[in-house]
Amino acid sequence: MARSSEPTTAPVIRPSDDDVVTADAFAHLAVELHDADGMNETVEAVVQFALQAEACSYAGVALVLRGSREIAAVTDPLVAEIYQLQFDLGEGPMLTALTEGVSVLVPDAATETRWPAWALKMTQFPIGSVLHVPMWANAQLIGVLSLYNTEPNAFSEDDEAIAHILARHASVAVASTRDDETMSAAVDARKLVGQAMGILMERFDLDETRAFEILKRYSQQNNVKLRDVAQELIDTRKLRGSYGE
Questions:
Q1: Which of 60, 119, 178, 197 has the greatest number of beta carbons closer than 10 A?
Q2: Per-residue pLDDT of the chain (245 residues; tens, 9 = 90+)
């Protein structure tokens, strides 16, 4: 039997309305995060977006900043209480995600057995299910995105996938914001030190090298950051201690 000479046309796969809505939503989030002014606004945008894009009643972000853990943003004080509870207990799904860098799903908080002390305390909160997703930036664990629902078994596989995408968006934005703030702080510090050096150079007829040496030595001998030494000299026109007047 002869074969048909008509070409075979591959089926055209079009994104569903939900896929388009999600893509548009993430595009809008990317713009919001780019326009956010500082770390606080960045994480606030993330948790507010989570309420819209996810099947969650509450959301929060905990970050690791300069080696310490910090509650960065929550959509309700209840989330801050649950975070603090885990810090105090030293156990819980959020702490596991934050220290091990793994996603943690609690389908039903009422039947959870992996963290007994946490599960016992959670009976006082109207929480049915929990999802924690780690936030990574340049292979560094910088925080956790937390989603809570008042009902058990609320998070589907699609919800988990969206949470991971949201966490990646958040990680890049937070890391970028943190780098900008660190750079800005460094620039401000250099300006302060320059002003302080100018004061010493004028008052004691010193060159730049000698003025900087005095500030640095004062900083080391009195265990005070160089930036703070400069700020003190600018504010008071004198230094207490070894090089005070």
A1: 60
A2: 444 444 333 333 333 344 434 556 655 655 565 555 566 777 888 888 888 777 899 999 998 877 789 898 999 999 999 999 999 999 999 999 999 999 999 999 999 999 999 999 999 999 999 999 999 988 889 899 999 999 999 999 988 988 898 888 788 777 776 654 444 454 456 777 788 888 888 888 888 888 888 888 888 888 887 778 888 888 887 776 544 44
Contact at 8 Å (CB) between 79 and 66? no
CATH 1.10.10.10 residue ranges of the chain are 183-236
Q: What is the Cα 98 distance to its own chain's centre?
A: 11
Q: Under CATH, to which class is 17-182 assigned?
A: alpha beta
**Token reading at 93:** 């799904």
Bridge partners, residue 61, by sequence: 73, 145
φ, ψ (nearest 5 deg) of residue 67: 85, -5
CA-based torsion, 151, 152, 158, 164: positive or negative: positive
Give the architecture (CATH level 2) of 183-236.
Orthogonal Bundle (1.10)
Cα–Cα dist 233/239, whole Å: 6
Q: Where would I find the beta strands (DSSP E) of the chain?
A: 58-65, 68-74, 104-106, 129-137, 140-149
The H-or-E segment that residue 50 falls in is helix 39-53
Cβ atoms of residues 64 and 203 within 8 Å: no
Angstrom distance (rounded) from CA 241 to CA 189: 22
